[in-house]
Amino acid sequence: MPQLTIQKVRAILTAPAGINLIVVKVETSEPGLYGLGCATFAYREKAVKSIIEDYFDPLLHGRDPADIEDIWQIMNNNSYWRNGPVTNNAVSGVDMALWDIKGKLAGMPLYELMGGRSRGAVAVYRHADGKTLEEVGDNVQKFHEDGVQHIRIQWGGYGGKAGALHQSESVPHGVYYDPKQYMRDTLKLFDYIRDRMGFEIELLHDTHERLQAIDAVNLAKELEPFQLFFLEDILSPEQGEWFRMVRCQCATPIANGELYNNPKEWDYLIKERLIDFIRVHISQIGGITPARKLAIFCEAFGIRTAWHGPGDVSPVGHAANIHLDLVCPNFGIQEWSGFKDASLEVFPGCPELRKGFVYANSRPGLGIDINEELAARYPCKTEATRWTQTRIPDGTANTP
Ligand code: MG
Q: According to the CATH classification, is domain 6-108 in 3.30.390.10?
């Protein structure tokens, strides 16, 4: 084969499940040989698309797609300022696509290329929510009957049900929650679910960084008797130093990191063993290349992976998560949000869930494709994001 080169780097925007997704397609000089990657930053999709097409396409034209590490370094440093979420997502889209191409050239699924499987399938956790305790319990029971062993429980969404808020006469528009009410309700929720389901089932919970730091310490302590599999994102990237206090006071397992962009946000947490699970959003840190390095770094310190796997990751990104999960010996658990029918049609080759485990297919590369004609039927919407305009009862804007 003549020297293979990158010919075109472009972004495909689609929203088959009503959530903006960004997929990068890297086309090569070999007809029909291309790679796909996830660059999904659902709330800034046009900014990511511009980096991919206005900056990375000319930067990468004519390069050898085999040079993944070199291309990653060039993309990361090319704008001089680095480690921001918009650029990182664009870098990730190209990085995953290059791994996809490498797998296709080798005729191997990515998990083979990265060293082979450490396990046959990937254990996942599902998300059970509800307006009442009974409704959450019923949803937990349904998942458990489907063979799911790990279930994240929330009562009334992140930050809890708002209830009757004690407010001043004039409060700004926003999505309100009451952190103290949420803490009390969460303890009631765990009491109810443990009472109903026993201790055989693994329970998780996501605080979504919605508490003051000292309240987060308190919640981790108060939840200790309920033996969580992990407590997720109790502290924001800005308040990570407080994990030392959590560690001194309880043994509730801690998972953190879906907002991290920069290695300096996680390196001390790992070196000091302040968390138990790293759960970064892989496109948000720049793709498979940095995620593999991060997993190996964590392995040395006894910390497991729990990559972020919400609806605002494309099926291509979910496939990347699953390939990494299959390989890394220190895999812990995978968040799994499932696919709607429209997503399964747009993205043939999605990983499959059966009885609490997700299976990758054995096709070369990421094993997933995109039907661009179908994808075009589900255009993205650009609008001011509402759910992130969160406020506490006195009207103060707070982290979502
Ligand atoms: Mg979360």
A: yes
